[in-house]
Amino acid sequence: MTGNAVETAGLGRRYGKNWALRDCTLQLPAGRIAALVGPNGAGKSTLLHLMVGLLQPSAGTVTVFGDSPAGSLAHVGFVAQDTPLYRDFSPTELIELGRRLNRSFDVALAKERLAHLGIAMDRAVGKMSGGQRAQVALTLAFAKRPRLLLLDEPVASLDPLARREFLQSLMGGVADEGTTVLLSSHLLGDLERVCDYLIVLNHSQVQVVGGVDELIADHRVLIGPADIEAHGLTVVQERRTNRQATLLVRGYDPNVTPIDPQWTVHDVNLEDLVLAYLANEGAFSGPVGVRP
Ligand SMILES: Nc1ncnc2c1ncn2[C@@H]1O[C@H](COP(=O)(O)OP(=O)(O)OP(=O)(O)O)[C@@H](O)[C@H]1O
Known about the structure:
With 292 residues, the chain is of the alpha/beta class. It has two domains: 4-211, 3-Layer(aba) Sandwich (Rossmann fold); 218-283, no CATH class. The protein contains eight helices and 13 strands. A six-stranded mixed β-sheet has the order 5-6-7-3-8-9, sandwiched between helices. Strands 11-12-10-13 form a four-stranded antiparallel β-sheet. It has a three-stranded antiparallel β-sheet with strand order 2-1-4, covered by helices on one side. Strand 6 (148-152), helix 5 (160-177) and strand 7 form a beta-alpha-beta unit. It is elongated, with a radius of gyration of 21 Å. The two termini are 14 Å apart. Adenosine-5'-triphosphate binds at residues 15, 20, 38, 40-46. InterPro entries: AAA+_ATPase, ABC_transporter-like_ATP-bd, ABC_Transporter_VariousFunc, P-loop_NTPase.
């Protein structure tokens, strides 16, 4: 599938005088598994709620597969942070509800997944553990066979085994169906394993957006003696001790910007990259590394 699953332009949402999300312009290309990361209160849930039309923008626009959020709802699966389900309903009843509400609802997939997870089909979800409830909510979202799956911290309440199972089925599902996924989480290690696109929000604004491979390729860690500089490079994060300097830089190309040979150059991983940007929130006011 080509094109963008989601496009936002100047999107913002305000509560009173405070912006929960501000001037957010981004594209999420179809078929990607995207990580949405940022500190508490950065605006991640707000962005997801705007994408499904649960919130209305105070500024700007958001489209999903070229349509309004309301117009594209049939193609979107959403699991909110608190996995809201009808607490008195059992999985059997929720599956029946899903089938009646969505013509494409995959009853067999839902039943198989819950059986595989050992979840009681006739027990009210209100009596289940938080992790089991999360699994039921995720299963219902999967079974809708959406083109876009929006997940707000879906693995937070899952145990390590369940987390791995969930992430594997997520990758499998996307490979099979071409589903676009946007997944908010604080677990950077998990995200690194499954995501190929990254959106970093910080203080209500987009700080980084782009393909993970392109972003990794565009950044390097330089390590050298404490007293040398890296002239001509964009430094995202700089740490100096008495003996050593460690810089995370963007756009390093040895053919364009020769550096002091005392620097050693190292690759970055996603976790280092995200943490460097989050630690240096003031340095960049708009998105960087935009190469979908
Ligand atoms: N209903 C509301 N009324 C007032 N302010 C709100 C409301 N919902 C969110 N906010 C504020 O908007 C900002 C963004 O909140 P949001 O829930 O989108 O952040 P988040 O990145 O999802 O955070 P977390 O990682 O803690 O879930 C926060 O400062 C929050 O206090």
